[in-house]
Design a protein that fits this description.
The chain is of the alpha+beta class. The chain folds into two domains: 92 residues, Sandwich (Immunoglobulin-like); 35 residues. It has a seven-stranded antiparallel beta sheet, with no helix packed on it. β3 and β4 form a beta hairpin. It is elongated, with a radius of gyration of 34 Å.
């Protein structure tokens, strides 16, 4: 009995010690991944260095940019995106060209990352294809209408026959 109790206490203690390390992993230094969005925007993903989980709190994140010709832009504030926790998008577009972007976070902890970004105008999305032939929904609706008319004719025909006293030879 005493041996089982000691094993139970040991298992509980091991579980507590193992899981407290996971909880402590949040917080501390953060890492920022910065990239262009394929067009004229800048994106950033922030995660904790220790456990690589996304930073769940609203961050104070800004970038400055310097073009190959020496033109500067910023600081530009980044805003949290609906695409996921710890993911941010720029609030202003970069002019077309090659840029060196330096992203800086001041909250929840300080971090900086500098990358090269190519800014380009995206082509317009392709037009949706023109419908070809009769849409499937029209075929289904037409078939349903034909079945309804045939059912109505059969019903009212049966009612008329019954009222007249049956079929006359």
């Amino acid at each position: 009995m005493l041996r089982r109790l000691a094993l139970l206490v040991g298992a509980v203690l091991a579980t507590v010690l193992a899981t407290t390390g996971m909880a402590r992993a949040h917080g501390g230094p953060i890492a920022i991944e910065v990239a262009g969005d394929g067009g004229q925007g800048v994106t950033a993903a922030a995660s904790y260095v220790r456990d690589h989980h996304p930073v769940p709190v609203e961050m104070d994140l800004k970038f400055t940019a310097v073009s190959a010709a020496g033109k500067t832009m910023g600081p530009v504030t980044m805003k949290a995106s609906n695409e996921g926790r710890g993911f941010y998008v720029s609030t202003k577009k970069l002019p077309v060209g090659k840029w060196t972007v330096t992203m800086t976070a001041t909250f929840p902890s300080a971090a900086t990352k500098t990358v090269s970004v190519d800014s380009a105008i995206l082509p317009p999305p392709p037009a949706p294809p023109a419908p070809q032939g009769i849409p499937a929904m029209a075929i289904v609706a037409g078939s349903a209408a034909v079945v309804a008319v045939l059912a109505a004719v059969a019903f009212f025909g049966a009612v008329l026959i019954r009222r007249r006293g049956g079929l006359v030879p």
